[in-house]
Amino acid sequence: MPSTPRQGDSDDKLKDVREELQNQLERQKEEFQEQLKSAEAANVEVEEIKKEKVRMENTLKELKEDMQKQLNLQRKKYEEKIEKMDPLKRPKANPKLSEEEVMRAKDVIKVWRSRHYVKMAEAVLQSAATLKEAQIMSNELDESVVFQFTVVDVGHSVCSSYDMMLNGLTDESDDIALEEAPKPCIGIRVVDYRNGVVRLWSLNKLLERVRIMRQMHQYLDQPEYAQHLSLDNPFVEACMPSYTLVGEAEVPLRAVFESRVQDFALEVLSPYTSSTIGIIKLSLEPSHARAPSNTLKFNVVMHELIGFAEREGTEVHAQLFIPGISEEDGITTTQMINEFDEGPVRFGSVHSMSVPLSAPSDVTLRAARSSQMSPQCISTSYLAGMICATALPWPMDLARELTRPNSSPKKSTIFCLESRLKSWMK
Asked: How many angstroms separate the Cα of 105 from the Cα of each of 97, 108, 110, 125, 335?
């Protein structure tokens, strides 16, 4: 059984606890005194650090203010330099243009706007696949027709007067899009080897004809179905022309307004390749015929065309008109000339024409030459165009030769190509 604790034992324990607490207090007191001594020593260092901090802040502030002043000065100089370079703020010597300078600027802007370069390039890219499809179907249907892009300018689509008289063609063309399109524009040059004529189509007409070609091509291997289709031949016209525009020349009419005689020897340029096909000689003479008060009469004396051989085309005749003024009802035509062989095409005719007095002094007379194309001329034109188009299924060796980078076809290659193309046409 546990014994009852004695009074002396409790006193000893209390004494021990008291002594232990006293020792802890003594130790804490000593530690606190040491901390006080350390704090007094550290207080001196803190004061020195604070003083150094204030001194560095003042130095940094002065440096910052100095840098800001330099930056403001540099910015001011740079802004002055930029302001001097600005064309809008640059002082103008003579800000107002004279009336003559304004007219010249307007003329330049009008000329550049009439070029239609970007619009024509866009039209070529958009219609390239359609033209290639038409060419492929022409080959497979054995129609002997070649399609090429061409630039159509004012007067290129004018029909020959002899076609209107002999073949029943009219001025009212079924290709309204080509007539109404702002010139110059992109058109389709249709080289018809079977009929020996070159025609012009608009891009819209090409699309319409391609739709009919697809129907014909669809039943190419099924003649029993094709005979029930009443489709017109999309490669020909209802009234086929016999004459092709082969060249044109621009004749300035300044001498007409000055009432003097002037002789010309002008290059006749192909409307398709811009190459010279001959030299035309003609004269402008004042006319004493009666005319309205607002009209000026003059005579055009057609002499001869030099450099155009009959093997390239026969029944040559020229049509004279003033673009934008007399291309509707003021066209005059020379007689047809043939049997001239290698010699000059002698017209020997005088044509009376008129021009409004209100017309600009830089207006020109256009002389367009038409003829019946010979097979040699058709083949030559075909060769020049197809080198660039590659629409026909050429032999692979020739295709590689013509499409090799940084190389031009050799003379022997061109001769071989011409021979194979002619044999293909046969």
From this structure: 10, 5, 9, 32, 43
Distance, in Å, from the CA atom of 298 to the CA atom of 284, rounded to the nearest integer, reads 7
Mean pLDDT in the chain? 78
* Nearest CA among 381, 237, 251, 273 for reference residue 319: 251
State the pLDDT at residue 44: 63
Q: With helix as H, strand as E and coil as C, how does 341-375 read? A: CCCCEEEEEEEEEEEECCCCCCCEEEEEEEEEECH
What is the per-residue pLDDT across 321-340, written as a single tens digit (0 to 9) for each? 888 776 656 788 999 999 99
Alpha helices per DSSP H over 219-288: 223-226, 254-257
SS3 call for 16: helix
Report how far residue 384's alpha carbon sits from residue 395's, in angstroms, rounded to the nearest whole number.
Answer: 17
The pLDDT value recorded for residue 348 is 92
- 161 near 320, Cβ under 8 Å? no
- The three-class DSSP label of residue 327 is coil
Residue 23, pLDDT score: 80
Structure token pair of residue 249 = 């020349």
Rounded percentage of the chain residues whose pLDDT exceeds 70: 76
* Residue 144 DSSP one-character state: -
Give the predicted TM-score (pTM) of the model.
0.61
Distances (CA, A) of 162 to 240, 244, 332: 12, 11, 11
Higher-scoring residue by pLDDT: 385, 274 = 274
For the segment 82-102, what is each residue's pLDDT rounded down to a tens digit? 887 777 666 666 667 888 988
Half-sphere exposure of 345 (CA within 13 A, CB side): 30
**Which structural domains are found in the chain, ordered by start?**
102-242 (no CATH), 244-373 (2.60.40)
pLDDT given for residue 89 in this prediction: 65
Residue 194: closest CA among 152, 269, 144: 144
DSSP secondary structure code for residue 91 in this structure: P
Distance (Å, rounded) from C-alpha 341 to C-alpha 116?
A: 40
Which residue, among 184, 112, 114, has the nearest Cα to 154 in the 3D structure? 184
